[in-house]
Amino acid sequence: MHEYTSTARVWGLTCPGFPEEVSRARRWTRDILRGSPLADDAELIVSELSANAILHTASGGAGSFHLALAVSPKVVALSVTDEGGTGTAPKVELPSMDAVHGRGLGMVSVTAHRVVVHGSHSGYTVTAELFTDPQPGGHPC
C-alpha cells in the first residue's frame, strides 16, 4: 500500500434541527457500523451529541446539525457539529443528584476513549473516539 493511501472511510450526514432527527442519526450510525462491536456505544454517543445540538444550540428548530463518522482499523470517530448560538462551549458537568439536565456529555466522556471539543460561539464540533484496541500501550493511529 502506498504511504499516502488511507484505509479510513468517512461518511457525513446533515440533519434538520428537529427532535425526530435524533433517531435518524442513531439509525444512520447503526447501519454504517453494522456488525462492529463498537456499534452500540457509537449509537449512544451520536444520540446524545445530536440531542445536545438540538436542545442547547441554534441547531434546534430552524437550524441543522452535521454528523461525521470516520472508521479505520484502529478507531471510530464520531463528530457532531452544531450551529452555535451559545455563550459557552460544551463541557462535562457534575450535576447535583436531583438535576434534570447535565449528565449527557459526562456519559459520552465515560463511554468514549477520548472526547474533544472544537469551535466557538458560532458553532462547536464535539468528537468522540472509540478505539478498537484500547489496551494499554495500544496506539489508535
Automatic annotation (TrEMBL):
Keywords: Kinase, Serine/threonine-protein kinase, Transferase
GO function terms (MF aspect): protein serine/threonine kinase activity
Pfam families with a match to the protein in the record: HATPase_c_2
InterPro entries in alphabetical order: Anti-sigma-factor_SerPK (IPR050267), HATPase_C_sf (IPR036890), HATPase_dom (IPR003594)
Entry keyword Lyase: no
Sequence ranges assigned to domain Histidine kinase/HSP90-like ATPase in this UniProt record: 19-128
The name this protein goes by in its record: Histidine kinase/HSP90-like ATPase domain-containing protein
Source organism of the structure: Streptomyces swartbergensis
